[in-house]
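Quick one: structure tokens for this chain, please?
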Amino acid sequence: MTALSGGEQLDEELSPQNSVPERPDASAGEERRAPRSLEEIFPLRGDVTRGRQMQETWHAFGAEMEGAVRAALDASRSPPEIAYAIGGIVHNYFRTRGVTLTSYELRRLVAELLALRQRAGPAPPLVTFTAGPAAAETSWTGDEPGTPGPVVPDVVFDGPPSRLVDVEPRDSDAALLAAVTARARGRLATTSEGRFPRAAAAGAIDGALGELLQGEPERRDRLARLALSELCGMGPIDVIWADRSVRAVFVNGPAAIYVERNGAIEPSPERFRDHAHLAELVGRLARPSSSGAVMLRLRDGGEGLVIFPPAAPAGPILVLRRGAPGDATFERLIAARTLDRPMVELLRIAACCRLNLLVVGSEGSGKTALLAAVARDLSRARIVTVARHREFSWPQASKVELLVPSDTAFAPLLAAGARLRPDLLIVDPVRRADAPALAGLLSGGSRGVVAALEPHVMGGMSGTAFDLVIRLGRRDDGLRGVVGMADANGAPIFVHEAGRFHRRTTAPSFAGLVHKAGYGEALSRALR
């Protein structure tokens, strides 16, 4: 494995000269009243599903948000304020529809929308002069005595304040985090390897925060998670890895961290404090070897590579690549703290009893990995998968894989899959247009259906058609994973709160079906 897999050089369009002021030539589109299509603005890369979703979202944006964009083009605002306001509108609109834009994509869409300002009328000049130079004046030679100019404070050059959020100064949090971590270290007994038990570290951090920060519960919780990551985890890498859209991380140095997302490599805002900080955290992953390069296996099935000095004279180089969702197993999900063992036992019972399961989560939250773990766990069962991807393509004699083209509805293959009489029919992902076909299949009495969809598709489905609903998302510990399980009536069975999973009921609505199938005692043990 090479450190950057040929990706050391960032894409040309991410270079500094292509920032917000750059926009497509507006002269050819003066007569158009709407933004151009995405293909005309920038080439769509990555998976086809995301490209189609971006196209649909951009089309809807043009139809719904023209008023908001024109309101942002306020002549009383400075150009940076206008660009920032439009950027916030675009970012929030796409994010609420499950699309996270890269910085390059956001800049190009903002530049496209700024063209509306020119079509609305000529922009006012940025600088005006009250009079031209006097005719009698001579040109400057450089020998004239200079006169001191006005003193301009640095604050004049600060960017405009955010109209969307209040941002805590990063340096302030960094200094406080360093102080909390230092005090917590002083409270802990260091082992020979410099590692700390997680529970003891959490207690020491809580005590240090009590001394250094009063009130501000949200900030306190955030700092507690970051400090725990510093003492027991991987610090900045944990923050990056919690984003499921990140497929790989490349650390070239303390201030040079890159991520791979949607097939493109881009810089990350996260940083290590210094070389010593990087060396300490990388040392938790591996020990130096004589070859200088150490291969890693991650708990979630991914892999990594560390190159130590002297092979890397500037300091350790780290590469982490996330495992493919189709390789997920229950044991790996438990190790990655996506869920815990009692929840796994409940999922096993539900699959064996052919309950209908619904997995709900945003893009990149881990839905496909959870479905793959369910399917792999029942290796002897007859399984049919209906999907728009090949994550379920592992060899298994009792499994049938049906692949749906990206531009085709699920309905024909969904009906065909049901006719194969599987023990489990796995559907991933269900789009809004597919919801009626799936609802019709369930209303006809089909059992053993395991489907995944994003929250905005739930409007086309009835939650009561599914015996067990599993929700995925970002939890209060900063990680993505299961946030709750509920029965068909919405009664919570498991929830994730205060960094732990908690059981809420021992009598879910599907208990009768489980007892009838002969798994009543196993259900009681799982929910005990």
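The chain has 17 helices and 15 strands.
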